[in-house]
Amino acid sequence: MGNKITLNTLNSNSNNNSNINKNILNVPDDPIIPYIDGDGIGPEIWRTARHVFDSAVEKAYNGKRKVEWMEVLAGGKSFEKTKSWLPDETLDAFREYLVGIKGPLTTPIGKGIRSINVALRQKLDLYVCLRPVKYYGGIETPVRRPDKVDMVIFRENTEDIYAGIEFKAGTEDNTKFLKFLEENFPERFEKIRFGTLEKTNEFHKSGNIPLAEETEVGIGIKVISKTGSHRLMKAAMNYAIENKRKSITIVHKGNIMKFTSGAFRDWCYELAEDQYPEYVYTMMQWEKSFLAEGREAADKELNEAIDIGKIIIKDSIADNALQKVLTDPQDFDIIASANLDGDYLSDAIAAEVGGIGIAPGANINFVTGHAIFEATHGTAPSFAGLDKVNPSSLILSGMMMFKYLGWTEVSDFIEKGVRGAIKSKSVTFDFARQMVGAKEVKCSEFGQEIINHFD
């Protein structure tokens, strides 16, 4: 049996800025890495991905290093065996061994746990959903210049609407909450148009529609905290500095949700200016100079900051950002967003480079070092067992994992292999239908194509 990965935290900045810390993973030559193969297509894409991973490790280190894979259970397979969708033993394993990887999991319908993925993120406090998206060539996409897409999304993973504070319509809890709102915040209660039978009947009267016999309204609470926003932005800043990225765009809907999404924007700017002043120039600073000295002075400051390599911190309203990532992808480098905005943005950006089948992802706590790398797509049960589906999302997530472990030779081989396999046009059906002259191959065969192109 292999050994555990452990963690040291060291200050990595020569200027002794204590805000810039890098987790140093102590990775043995035979690390134990827990995995969940997943539901639906999960087992077959995991088999293919594991073959690619083991081949890349062998290629890089000639037997001097090896991963000890340890299966843990979650999802449908777990429920069949243990009657639990997410056993405590699985959480304990991820806690103990720090780094793991998983395939897609079923979200149980009407059965206890809301989402296994969300539960893993919240219980392990994996507060960053890290989604790098770039073009690997060869695939026809919905945009003219997919080669200009090279973005890294930092999505806050534990708050926002996804916190799960909801009150189902027609329940006792829902009635209690509505009553509390009406008694304590009447001006806000008035904003719920159909929150009572009286209100709903008034609506029906005014519209000459038969009276409603009852009224139901679902309620959800959006939670955005200063701490959650700060630590997300801090992770994005450290990544930008370490990887020499040029800008961070804070995506928000602060024009409407001023005290949640708008606060997220303000807190992200605050963190960048207060803790990283020597590294950044923000558009808040530009605005202050513009108001005090005019556009020419403000633009001069901005251009000087760009010339000396400062990271430009800017923001974009979510709906505008969703348009601009499609029309002007070159204007985006790192994106920092709250949970909901980051969810749809990351999938939309993935569509620009070939779809979610080639989009890797990771859930990371940059303080404790805990990380789970994952396929970003669903279980696709109608394709299960057919050895047909694209394994690239899980394979590229593994590439991210090996880079996180410091085994960069392995991650380099995997990325080179994926590029080469796509260029060869021997690809799975989803890629084949987006390429001229492609040869459609099975999931397992595509994995072997990747291995064949390590060189």
General description of the model:
- By secondary structure, the chain is α/β, with parallel strands linked by helices.
- The chain contains 17 helices and 17 strands.
- Among the domains are: 1-133 and 353-455, Isopropylmalate Dehydrogenase, CATH 3.40.718; 166-220, no CATH class.
- Strands 4-3-5-15-14-6-7-13-10-12-11 form an eleven-stranded mixed β-sheet, with helices on both faces. Strands 1-2 form a two-stranded antiparallel sheet. Strands 8-9 form a two-stranded antiparallel sheet.
- α1 (42-61) crosses α14 and α10 runs antiparallel to α11.
- It has helices spanning 42-61, 75-82, 88-97, 116-123, 172-184, 186-189, 197-206, 226-242, 261-275, 283-293, 295-307, 318-327, 339-351, 392-405, 408-424, 429-432, 443-452; strands at 6-11, 21-26, 32-36, 68-71, 99-102, 128-134, 150-156, 166-167, 219-220, 247-252, 280-282, 311-317, 334-337, 360-364, 371-375, 426-427, 439-440.
- Residues 12-20 have low confidence and may be disordered.
- Helices cover 43% and strands 17% of the residues.
- β16 (426-427), α16 and β17 (439-440) form a beta-alpha-beta unit.
